[in-house]
Specification:
- 71% of the residues lie in helices and 2% in strands.
- It is mainly α.
- The chain has one domain.
- The chain has a two-stranded antiparallel sheet.
- The longest helix is centred in the N-terminal third of the chain and has 63 residues.
- It is elongated and about 145 Å long.
- The N and C termini lie far apart (151 Å).
Length: 236
């Protein structure tokens, strides 16, 4: 009789414990689903918001990639106090500050998040590199400045368009965003191709100028050598 009582007590205890475990599991499952819905919502909100800023950055970079220092009328955009014109940038370096956005970055894939958060550093690096091409001369932006600047910003436009594409993929096959990426990608590709051609053109012109200078210097040295030889020649 005592053994039956003990067995029944164990059964009751086991049933109670099982109920506690099952109840805890159900609660955990509900909370996990709730958190997952929140994460998905955060992720979609982040994607839509950040994509808008990335699109703006791409378009700004594409605009810079077409800047050759001329105003809307095709004349040099700069002018010294004496009226002497010179090429001058008509576009400003873009800004992108992702950490000011009110989003949950943890809801995003780590690699994609890193690419986005690295963009301010890339922009700062490009700005420093371009500034190093400014010369202390009456034409401070002459020479390599514009071709170099155009290529760097066109290349960045292409990279940012790729990030836009990857971020858009997290939203599924939304035709609006797919169409917008196609447009951004095409603009960035065209800008990069044009900028590369301009840089190659500048390189060819610079090489031709160096060859002419070398030929001129060689001719001058040859003339000096003839003069010295004539001066040193014995007189009859």
């Amino acid at each position: 009789m005592a053994e039956q009582s003990i067995a029944q007590s164990l059964i009751n205890a086991g049933s109670g414990l099982a109920g506690v475990v099952i109840g805890a599991a159900i609660t955990w499952f509900r909370e996990e689903r709730k958190e997952e819905r929140v994460r998905q919502g955060d992720s979609k909100y982040l994607a839509v918001l950040v994509m808008g800023h990335l699109e703006n950055l791409v378009r700004q970079c594409v605009t810079i990639a077409s800047d050759v220092g001329l105003d809307d009328e095709g004349r040099p955009a700069g002018e010294h106090s004496d009226g002497y014109p010179f090429l001058k940038p008509t576009t400003l370096a873009p800004k992108f500050e992702p950490l000011t956005l009110d989003v949950n970055w943890k809801a995003l894939d780590t690699d994609l998040m890193a690419q986005i958060l690295d963009l301010p550093g890339e922009l700062a690096h490009i700005k420093r590199s371009v500034a190093a091409k400014i010369v202390d001369d009456i034409d401070p932006y002459d020479g390599e400045y514009f071709p170099y600047r155009r290529v760097l910003y066109a290349g960045l436009a292409r990279r940012v368009a790729g990030i836009y594409r990857d971020l858009q993929a997290t939203l599924g096959t939304n035709p609006v965003y797919l169409s917008r990426y196609a447009e951004l990608g095409a603009q960035a590709d065209e800008a990069l191709q044009t900028a590369n051609e301009a840089l190659l053109g500048y390189a060819r012109q610079a090489e031709q100028w160096r060859q002419k200078q070398a030929a001129l210097e060689a001719k001058e040295e040859e003339e000096e050598a003839r003069k010295r030889a004539a001066e040193q020649a014995p007189t009859a």
